[in-house]
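User: Thanks for the earlier help. One more: Netrin-1. Can you show the sequence and predicted structure together?

Assistant: Of course, both are below.
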Amino acid sequence: HGEIFSHLKSTLSSPRPPSHTCLLCTCGPHNVTLTLSLGKKFEVTYVSLQFCSPRPESMAIYKSMDYGKTWVPFQFYSTQCRKMYNKPSRAAITKQNEQEAICTDSHTDVRPLSGGLIAFSTLDGRPTAHDFDNSPVLQDWVTATDIKVTFSRLHTFGDENEDDSELARDSYFYAVSDLQVGGRCKCNGHASRCVRDRDDNLVCDCKHNTAGPECDRCKPFHYDRPWQRATAREANECVACNCNLHARRCRFNMELYKLSGRKSGGVCLNCRHNTAGRHCHYCKEGFYRDLSKPISHRKACKECDCHPVGAAGQTCNQTTGQCPCKDGVTGITCNRCAKGYQQSRSPIAPCIKIPAAPPPTAASSTEEPADCDSYCKASKGKLKINMKKYCKKDYAVQIHILKAEKNADWWKFTVNIISVYKQGSNRLRRGDQTLWVHAKDIACKCPKVKPMKKYLLLGSTEDSPDQSGIIADKSSLVIQWRDTWARRLRKFQQREKKGKCRKA
């Protein structure tokens, strides 16, 4: 037995003229092996050997697809196929067995004694060879990383029957002048050439967004459709995932690919810039689209900024940015009370409904008594507020009159104290309070008040009918509120704290 690792040429691009050098092996007549490593996967189209000696009587060609770890028969040659390889001679090739090695007695004649040729075409006679691009079976059949030729038996011209047969056999040898392996780099149609990488390994120069030694996978981020071998009609290039510039990685999902009509199956991973979704095509929870920028812009999503008290949650409308407001609250961020509502102190219900205005029979429509001119002097025109008036009164508050009802000789007003500028002895605080005004004072318009209006009230501390409210009378100052007064009243308040008030 003998094994020879071939240093003869493998023509994997274009055939060359046969060499006149002969490789001789006197290893014996049986099982001499010639091995050729191709360095990577190739699609082999033919294997040919030219001999200086007579051609072998029996010979086998094998291929390996895993760099010599395992071997698969490619072709057998023998005058006795059944005896040598347990194969019938010249078996028919069908679609069912086109990936199997056959045995033939052709090319096994002893003649010529020198210069004989054995040529094996990997696709010759294979039924689907004409449609090779669409035949995974034949694509696998022609793939090899190594080729091995085993000379199983040579022609001995009957010398093995002589008494000195051992001496006769020793005088025979195998002599090969040329071994050619024709084919192309296995690049699955995605490269036109092979090159050496940094480690001096032979690899495909991949195109069509493919990668790998055989261009057998899609390069990173190009997983929008599954990898396919290129054909003469279709490049079947790998397609980049559509992540709107918000992701650097993606994966392929076959179910989504099928649902899309086999158009798109990419799923983006780890969307950035506050985006979400299969294509990073909408804003994540807590953000909304800035429609002035394209979805691919890194600032296409803006934070919702929902008010912590007025909003019912922190997730806003993806398109408008509108936050979900609590009852009675309005605004994009839910930061103010809606019309007909007023602010409360409750974080649960920050805006409460303003009670409906009383009917026309309320305080404003009371009939005026005949002696009003002598009873009090109703205010006419615009009243002015100054430090002297401020100091004369026990308290100064901004009120909002909510409703009014008659109670014997009194009018009872429900008011909301908005601001306290002077407290007095009853220690007034913000919130709902009862205001009592004598019926005759209201009738004579001393003071003149209307429900649903805001007023500045400067009054004196007196006992009210229910011992809890405040009283306004003809001596009280009740002026319809102006926002410009707030700053002036704060100044009066500061001066009072410094002891500058002198009661008249």
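User: Great, one quick takeaway?

Assistant: Residues 1-16 have pLDDT under 50 and may be disordered.
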